[in-house]
Design brief:
Elements (H helix, E strand, L loop, with lengths): L1 H39 L15 H29 L5 H34 L1 H7 L1 H35 L4 H17 L9 H16 L3 H7 L1
Helix pairs in contact: 1-2, 1-7, 2-3, 3-4, 3-5, 5-6, 6-7
């Protein structure tokens, strides 16, 4: 009986640790991608596309990292939902899951659009810029990330913070900080070029806290 209890305690602790590690991996990869893109691409969809001639490698690296960031984020979401268990609120869990998946879908679509017009530029640089295709694709990628992606990230933060308050994954002050940052993302409307960094930085802070908290001896004692 004691052995079964030890196994249950171990499984309960591994779940948040796995989610925290996945959250850290996601945050680091997304931060690197956002920084590379932000330093290479002008913060306006009306740019003439001069960056395509000298930023192909850095943007290519950023786009290569994004699928792995997405995989880590899926793992992060899955472990957090598993952590909810019987305490799961169906309404909040639906918003949590839906907003997270929509954020990933938007991230991947915008990355595919960016990668597509970069490949087209390498093949037919003159024709691409003259045809208006670049302007359309550039504006589409910008709108997806700054208008829709950031709002889905904000909704995900709202739902996660509310669930965290009910389940106790992290302190209330962290949840209230998440609410404030979520409002910022919802109202930013593309006015701040570095706004996409808010979401991965928030995820990184939460993930590090959860990971450290689950290695504390007093947490193990409390679980027993």
């Amino acid at each position: 009986m004691e052995q079964v209890k030890e196994t249950a305690v171990s499984a309960g602790l591994k779940a948040p640790r796995a989610g925290a590690i996945a959250g850290i991996v996601f945050s680091i990869l997304l931060i690197i991608s956002v920084v590379l893109i932000r330093l290479s691409v002008p913060d306006t969809p009306r740019d003439p596309g001069a960056w395509l001639a000298h930023s192909v490698k850095s943007i290519g690296l950023a786009l290569d990292l994004l699928p792995f960031a997405g995989i880590a984020f899926l793992w992060f979401m899955g472990v957090l939902r598993d952590r909810m268990g019987a305490r799961e609120d169906r309404f909040l869990a639906t918003v949590f899951l839906g907003s997270g998946l929509l954020f990933l879908a938007i991230l991947f679509v915008s990355s595919a659009v960016t990668g597509g017009f970069m490949m087209a530029y390498e093949a037919i640089p003159g024709k691409l810029m003259d045809s208006g295709t670049y302007a359309f694709a550039r504006t589409l990628a910008y709108e997806l990330v700054n208008i829709y992606g950031l709002r889905m990230a904000g909704v995900f933060m709202f739902s996660t913070c509310t669930l965290a308050i009910r389940i106790g994954i992290f302190p209330r002050w962290m949840a209230f900080l998440g609410y404030a940052l979520a409002v910022f993302l919802l109202l930013s409307i593309g006015k701040f070029g570095w706004a996409p960094l808010v979401f991965p930085l928030w995820t990184l802070v939460i993930s590090i806290y959860v990971l450290v908290a689950n290695f504390r001896p007093d947490r193990l004692t409390a679980e027993r």
